[in-house]
Protein: Molybdopterin-dependent oxidoreductase
Amino acid sequence: MSSDATTAAPAALDTPGGVGQEPAAHGLGTSLPQAEARAKTEGTFPYASDLWAEGLLWAAILRSPHPHARIVSIDTTAAAAMPGVRAVVTAADVPGAATYGRRVADRPVFASDLVRHHGEALAAVAADHPDTARLAAAAIGVEYEVLDPVTDPEKAFAADALHPDGNLIRHIPLRFGDPEATGEVVVEGLYRIGRQDPAPIGAEAGLAVPRPDGGVEIYTASTDPHTDRDLAAACFGLPPEQVKLVVTGVPGATGDREDPGFQIPLGLLALRTGCPVKLTATREESFLGHAHRHPTLLRYRHHADAEGRLVKVEAQILLDAGAYADSSSESLAAAVAFACGPYVVPHAFVEGWAVRTNNPPSGHVRGEGAMQVCAAYEAQMDKLAAKLGVDPAELRMRNVMATGDILPTGQTVTCPAPVAELLAAVRDFPLPALPKDTPEGDWLLPGGPEGAGEPGAVRRGVGYALGMVHMLGAEGTDEVSTATVRVMDGVATVICSAVDTGSGFSTLARQIVQETLGIDEVHVAPVDTDQPPAGPAAHGRHTWVSGGAVERAAKMVRTQLLQPLAHKFGMSTELLQITDGKITSYDGVLSTTVTEAMDGKELWATAQCRPHPTEPLDESGQGDAFVGLAFCAIRAVVDVDIELGAVRVVEMAVAQDVGRVLNPAQLAARIEAGVTQGVGAALTENLRTARGLVRHPDFTGYALPTSLDAPDIRIVKLVEERDVVAPFGAKAASAIPVVTSPAAVASAVRAATGRPVNRLPIRPQAAVAVPNS
Structure:
């Protein structure tokens, strides 16, 4: 893969800090490497699965083999009597709240009366050996009355209630403009998006250690430690101060670390046995236990005038939430609000629903809601272009959104929205050479160099997609983060409970302090719940909210450092600057080092960052629900064997609205990763179920894209138009390429085959060209 804008688009380097620029020593705009990069590459970094404690016991969880069943009885006698077994816990042993949930507390710690999805937890065992724990869990006798599962979300509306809260989680009717408006040209489509799994390479793991005060400490790879701590404490029947959660070795996260469903059984076992208890999930447990991207059914009707300008969009969006609510309400809000995409639409009427079924639980995965609708509205734009005989890129250009336009939710786009600039950049970027133009090179046929395809059956397609996502929480979420910066003996320490899930926050925090205080050596303290809360690691929150808190705290320390000097020389602190560890005045009278100015003192400050508030969508889907937006344009080039239906993504050209480049190398890596995840959603990733049963919950049955599947990724333009309300002006970077790239790949396959391609991932039969295409 290539993400180097030096060769792709020199224009992307016109601004300071562009990708490819020679890095400075430190500070914002430089490619400061991650502090733990060496340990991770050498294999010495301690992940959660590496934890150990004296007197350790091992845990195992018994999970349901049925997607829907009534529990007649659970007999733990045989399991408890096995040598080496120290404890067996079921729903009857939960001392506090029997259910939990980040947004809605509707998910039981252990199923007690009904099983609502395949893999739901029924009991947990602690034993002196992991094999003993697994055998004991298998020895628990459960008598089921198997029930017919509800697996079709369309049938959930009329089905018997699967949960005391009913089957409908949320309904959003969006009404914007004139319902009687019509266009001269109308196109319709029905689209289906599959169940993408976060598929972490490092499966869930954790260690719970009992405390002398009757509490417990849980060491795990959490992305929202304070919320996880509070949920666990409620289930333990303990006050939050008696439960401590320590974040250890997060091996990356795209939503898969947000389910505390295995942390709570772990803590219960530690409290019951009085011993440390460790749990490392198997790959099958990982697939069955955590949340997945919402499978979605979408119906669309686009109206346009004779020139292709959009008049009205009508849509129905149905999200399959699986057994429990989780983040489905928030995902639905994003899907409905962004149902028309980054286009100007005078009239929009959208109905959105999220419903419970007996399918695996759905929840937060990068770009939730926005990714599904992007695939659908971009397919509609391709249909409209074909019907009008207009170039697909030109049709999009006639409709793109800009700053000052109004979303269908009635919210004005006040942030930079350079959508036209992004689209022009990918449209005008040179196309990759055709195989016949480079006969000396090896041409990889779709399906691989040893595939069964013939070069004569291969067609090349070029497709476009424009995507948008919101940053931070939405609909009234109170976004706040707290950070402390402490400086002593020439070393700065940042204390903030923002978890770095691969977004690079810990590196960004170091860069902020380096730039503000001129100190090279900056450390970021390990995260635990003794620190003030910083909120979840999602929607680019920590770059904005936690980075803003670090910046404010560092500036407060800077004032403490400079005030004595300014007072001594009779000037204000604004007339002093810190550069490369030196403090100088505007007139050159004062010149000293930061170390000399510190004079052995310890300086520290704590600050908060809270963006401006938002509001929930009303009964018509209207409201200022989002703090900020980010945009992306992608042009995909694919080769398709039109006889076999095999697809190879040749190149993805990306232009992205980033606000400001804070770390060029890190940003390029985030974009590359996002595009690759999106390619997986487009072509291979689908956690398949048969009547609610997960089929092949492993990496043999669930096909992740490998380095051989990843295309050339060309970052052709990074638009650095700073968002004035965001700290540093930067925008979220990783979710938006995930949202946009599946739609771009599908568009390119349409161009190559002439087929509608209305389902993701794209099945081979959908990529076989129609006769004479």
Summary: The CA atoms of residues 302 and 313 lie 5 Å apart.
